[in-house]
Amino acid sequence: MTSKTTLKFMLAAGALSVGLSHGALAQGTVKIGSVLSVTGPSSFLGEPEDKTLRLYVDKINAAGGVAGKKIELVIYDDGGDANKARTFATRLIEDDEVIAMVGGTTTGSTMAMIPVFEEAQVPFISLAGAIEVIDPVRKFVFKTPHTDKMACEKIFEDLKKRNLTKIGMISGTDGFGASMRAQCVKVAPNYGMQILIDESYGPRDSDMTAQLTKIKNTAGVQAVVNPGFGQGPAIVTRNYAQLGMTATPFYQSHGVASKSFIDLAGPAAEGVRLPAAALLVGDKLPESDPQKKVVTEYKQAYESATKQPVSTFGGHAYDGLFILVEAMKRANSTDPQKIRDEIEKTKGFVGTGGIVNMSATDHLGLDLSAFRMLEIKGGDWNLAQSGS
Amino acid sequence: MAEFLQFLISGLTVGAVYALVALGFTLIYNASGVVNFAQGEFVMLGGMVTVFTSAAGMPLPLAALIAVGVAVVIGLMLHRFAIEPARGASAVTLIIITIGASILLRGIATIVFDKQFHKLPAFTGDTPVDILGAAVQPQSFWVLGGAAVVVLVLYVFLEHTLLGKAVLATAANRLAARLVGINTTTIMALAFGGSAAIGAVAGILVTPITLTSYDVGTLLALKGFAAAMLGGMGNPVGAVVGGLLLGLLEAFGAGYISSTYKDAFAFVVILIVLFAAPQGLFGRRVVERV
């Protein structure tokens, strides 16, 4: 069986990689597939993921590959379209015969692809945010990004430390904002949070002063939480300052954890808090932090290769790739089933998103410590002093 | 009262942008009978070109001027290379051409510029002005004032210049206009260039408030079109009133009813208006002569 599979790989590699890979035929390759939203509305997620995967697969191959085999990366761009994603997923399985997949930029495209990989019994490490990807647990599906539920819990934990329990919410109606809002509403009672007012805005709205005015005029609101991503939260933040509400603590989500948020929101972003991965504050982490080495190395490698500021989204792809590569090393096999078993046994993996400990019931493996509470000060991310 | 004023000004600001987009629709519709769905892309070009030229070190007024120039050139090219060659085609074909053009322009924008959001500094600072308890961004006055100036200039042009009267004549009856010696092709080119300029001005004015990216045009075109329909397609006054009304409906809908349903609320009102008056608030009744 093994030799037959290898032969198949070699034939497939030979047929498809004419003029592409050097020496792939000589040594034998393993194929890892990926479907990403490199273009389209989610391109700001997909592009860094794409660059990260290519960068590190090249690095791994240059260092001799995995278990003596070079990795051949097959990336398709779904343009943010879940239908296309599903078509490409089928192509990865049937034509390219990949042994595993690291991809699925958005929750929508991930959910569309899950049945394909479950049926083919090929491990699928998703880069999408929502908790639905791994809850309920599916045998072959894993993910690396933190869930929106964890973001809510981290925010509420911070609020509780500051003795603030009455909050207002203003959420985007896009997939991310709506999903996180629902999770926040669900976990709020666990932290004794009372949501006094719950407003929303459309993903392309250009003015949120009406909603914020309502929140401002609601008596007793001690803090405001804004689940959302894209440009919406930047406008909310600007309107928040415009209406002179900055005395009330303001929380954004991990959805805006990129430098462009600070640029877009400008001085209005001062004092805003948000939960985010350690990657954003790599240089500010204490030396003793276990993630320090991984995040500074990734940041350095990514920024020097792409000349673009690092984002947490590319970090998710990094984590996914290396969880897979380490599982392949441990399995010492290209059998998808064995690789799956090893991915599930991932313990103490230090990634850019946190320390991953997977189990049969947890295909994410991150706890709340994976999130750092950041505060924007002087136009930069800073670790927030807890309880202050 | 402060709350009411806050909603009012926020609605008027957003509405002024819808009004300018609707005005662009109207100008081209009048001259050619085409609903130009690339109208939103002119708004995008205004904002994006200004952002990128000013980032390249150009002073803001000059960057804005260049942006309007670029938009006008692209508007003229749209007419010359896409609309004019298909002259004899039906209105539906021409509309589909403009949809294609809008997709093309968006695609080119992702290559020439990028896919990120960008901002412009507010023209006169970010410190909110307090008006009876409502906090207003100074840029809102720029948007409102700019829109008023555009409307005024357009009015003077249409009513008090020979060329403007030629546009009106073409709008009223293209065949008759041609018979009295008006070059309707030039008038159509003028309409495309003019509405591109109006769109670009809207984009420049509003970018400091709303930010911009390659795809901001899509939704603005939709809202501007709705505003033009509400006011009555082809009527400049209707376009302005329709735009402001749509902005106000959204702001008051979000403020007093529910932010979840504010878009639905605005569109339900439009549907009711169009149900009662299918030609829009200020629209001409179209009489089909057989």
From TrEMBL, chain A:
Keywords: Amino-acid transport, Signal, Transport
SUPFAM superfamilies in UniProt: Periplasmic binding protein-like I (SSF53822)
Signal peptide: 1-26
Signal keyword on record: yes
Repeat as UniProt keyword: no
Database matches in InterPro entries: BCAA_transport, Leu-bd, Leu_Ile_Val-bd, Peripla_BP_I
Highest taxon of source: Bacteria
A Pfam family this chain is assigned to: Peripla_BP_6
Gene Ontology biological-process entries: amino acid transport
Domain Leucine-binding protein residues, every copy: 29-365
Family: Belongs to the leucine-binding protein family.
Protein name listed in UniProt: ABC transporter substrate-binding protein
Organism: Microvirga aerilata
TrEMBL record, chain B:
Main location: membrane
Subcellular location per the Swiss-Prot or TrEMBL entry: Cell membrane
Record field: transmembrane: 7-29, 49-78, 90-113, 140-158, 179-205, 237-258, 264-282
InterPro entries for this protein: ABC_transp_permease (IPR001851), BCAA_transport_permease (IPR052157)
UniProt-recorded Gene Ontology molecular function terms: transmembrane transporter activity
Keywords from the named record: Amino-acid transport, Cell membrane, Membrane, Transmembrane, Transmembrane helix, Transport
Bilayer disposition of the protein: Multi-pass membrane protein
GO annotations of cellular component type: plasma membrane
UniProt record, GO biological process: amino acid transport
Family, per entry: Belongs to the binding-protein-dependent transport system permease family. LivHM subfamily.
UniProt name for this protein: Branched-chain amino acid ABC transporter permease
Species: Microvirga aerilata
